[in-house]
Amino acid sequence: MYNSISAEVYNLDKPIGSSFGDVEYYSSRLSRVKGRILEPAVGTGRILIPLLEKGYTVDGFDLSEEMLDYCRDNLKKAYKEANVFRADMETFQSEQLYEAIIIPTGTFLLISDEEKAFNIISNFYNHLESDGRIIIDIFLPTDFVEGKSTYRTFSNTQGDLITFQITESEINYIEQTTISHHRYDKWKEGKCIESEFEVFKLKWYGVKEFKRLLMQIGFKDIVISADYKYKQYPTNPNQVITFEAVK
Ligand SMILES: C[S@@+](CC[C@H](N)C(=O)[O-])C[C@H]1O[C@@H](n2cnc3c(N)ncnc32)[C@H](O)[C@@H]1O
Questions:
Q1: What DSSP designation does 229 have?
Q2: Residue with CA closest to ligand 1 atom 13
């Protein structure tokens, strides 16, 4: 996942400077943090770079070398430096403790099952300083329709056309998972020069279920917010739900 064309599309579609409200929200919620912040699954640096620009010290890691290449390039363009490295949320280990660990944009839904989710968040708990905090977003796949196909196009800096087809293939209400099939094709002068296929699985959580998961791990002072409005409890299933919890 997030291989060469999909990383390119992510960077074209959501360049540094783009926000779903998350950039402003995370930046404001972190205002009392003076120490190091970690962003697992940092991607292209879309959140990391604005946080660095606000004066925060942020490390980031990602599983995808291609996303990290864009992140390093975006850092250079922003004249910023940060410790960004390749690691997997499932096996991440470091001597460093963090004052905050953040996972915006529903990225956590990419973790395929609950046992892995539990182990990953427990591991993040162990990488927090005492009184450190985790801030993490989830969402519900309310607009998923089995069989729906959507199609988008992009042009890259070399003038190539990229077509991107998303097919919403399966929703499993028992396992709380969705599977979509992604197809990317890159076209130069009317010829398809590269294609990429991706099986995109998301695993969702209920609001109280996720709160229990955090409590089981030992987190306290859990605050639930909707659509990046602090302490506004969700009222609508389409909202992004943010959990903030203290070690
Ligand atoms: C939706 S992007 C989000 C990037 C960035 N956080 C942002 O908000 O723009 C999801 C990222 O998660 C990364 N990722 C997926 N599974 C991962 C894992 N197990 N460990 C580390 N990174 C992972 C992908 O490579 C991708 O860069």
A1: B
A2: 41
Q: Which residues, 6+ apart, have CB-to-CB distance to 130 below 8 Å?
A: 247
At 152-183, the pLDDT tens digits run 999 999 999 999 999 999 999 999 999 999 99
Q: What span, in angstroms and rounded, lies between the C-alpha atoms of 96 and 127?
A: 7
Q: Which CATH class is domain 4-140+205-246?
A: alpha beta
Domain boundaries defined on the chain: 4-140+205-246, 149-203
1 pLDDT band (50/70/90 cuts)?
A: low
Query: Ligand 1 pocket check: which of 2, 18, 136 to mutate, most ligand atoms within 8 Å of Cβ?
Result: 2
Q: Is 89 in the pocket of ligand 1 (CB under 6 A)?
A: yes
Assessment of whether the complete model's pTM goes beyond 0.90: yes
